[in-house]
Amino acid sequence: MEPMADRDRRGGMTALRTLPRALVVGAVVLLLAACAAGGPPSPSGSAPSNASPAASKSASAATSAPGGRLTQAQLKVRLIDRFGDLWFCDPDFYPVARDDEGALAIRNWVQVTADADGLAAVAARLGIATATPTEPQKLAIYHEWKMLRAIALDPAGTDAWRFDYQAAPPPPSSANGTRTTGTIDARGTITVTKAEPGLPPNCPICLARGSLVETPLGAVAVEALRIGDPAWSRDGAGNRVAAMVIALGSVAAPAGHRVVRLTLADGRTLAASPGHPLPDGRRLGEVRVGDTVQGSVVVAADLVPYQGGETFDLLPSGLTGQYAVDGIWLGSTLRR
Q1: 205 contacts 276 by C-beta, under 8 angstroms
Q2: Which of 13, 101, 115, 325 has its CA at a distance of 20 to 30 angstroms from the CA of residue 144?
Q3: CA separation (Å) from 169 to 96, 179, 290, 322?
């Protein structure tokens, strides 16, 4: 059996396990082309054109914490000012845009205002007063607020934090951005350890942890499956057939990742990333309430925050590579 892939040091964690090549020809090279996401995510590298022209892109106007210390949100703004816009998996766009970003800004404004430090830091950077922002101003704030949420700061001793910052390539877009690692202290002093070309982030398009995959032995959580385990699949005529798991993949879910929680009128339900495919070619992120999925009407298709750490996928043997979660048939992102 081939070894599990090492952690990808330039993106999220990816893992791939496959049967011996003699049993499954061409079943390797799957995760990097699918579940681990290929290509850069949709708009996450440049601010909307309606951002205030008075903004100098500086966090200096934001109110600091007592003693001259900056808030976590202000520290993240310092990183954006220094290295440019973050290259991240924007949950509103990758891999399927669910709505106009302006409409999403209005819809999610309650979440933005609940994050008082983040709102203050972003509004100060953009030069926008938060008392009565216009809709275009809300969009500008929302766009950058999502970026702040995706930046991770890890403790590095007293009053200092480590960062691993993936900056988006400047327009016109090139293949690589810039990845910078280092530390930032409580007063915003940045120390760079290393700077190098960076690859696009790995954006998950797979199942939520705990998704119950149907097998001849009963339902099994996707993260508990192993190569060689039995699973139900479908043949070319749509008939259910016994199959075997021939590939498994997982990818780390970035901060702010959201999944579609799909509920059908007959009670079937599942949760997976917006880009996960249905057998008919639709992505979950494209499904709306009132649509029909496999003979039942969609009663909910909510985009909800994901806290599962990683998302998962599998590939069963057979012609179609399809499998079922709670009676809902899915395609596999690991199938070429």
Answers
A1: yes
A2: 13
A3: 21, 10, 39, 36
Give the residue from 198, 218, 248 where a domain finishes. 198
29 — alpha (psi -120 to 50), left (phi > 0) or beta?
left
Average pLDDT, the chain: 81
Rounded to 5°, the CA angle 235-240-241 comes to: 70
Helix boundaries (H) for 8-56? none
Rounded to the nearest angstrom, the gap between the alpha carbon of residue 109 and the centroid of all alpha carbons in its chain is 20
Give pTM, 2 decimals: 0.62
pLDDT digit string, tens, across residues 136-180:
999 999 999 999 998 999 999 889 999 999 998 877 665 678 999
Q: Are 125 and 77 in contact (CB under 8 A)?
A: yes
What residue numbers bound the domain in which 299 lies? Answer: 14-37+203-330
Q: Report residue 313 as tokens.
A: 């996928």
Please choose, from the candidates 118, 122, 89, the residue with its C-alpha nearest in 3D space to the C-alpha of residue 275.
89
Quick one: pLDDT at residue 336?
63
Question: How long a stretch of residues is the chain?
Answer: 336
Is there a single domain that holds both residue 86 and residue 25? Answer: no
Tell me, what's the pLDDT at 11?
Answer: 33
* 124, part of any domain: yes
User: What number is the average pLDDT over the span 32-57?
Assistant: 43
- For residue range 173-220, what is the model confidence (pLDDT) as tens digits? 656 789 999 999 999 999 999 999 987 776 778 899 999 999 999 999
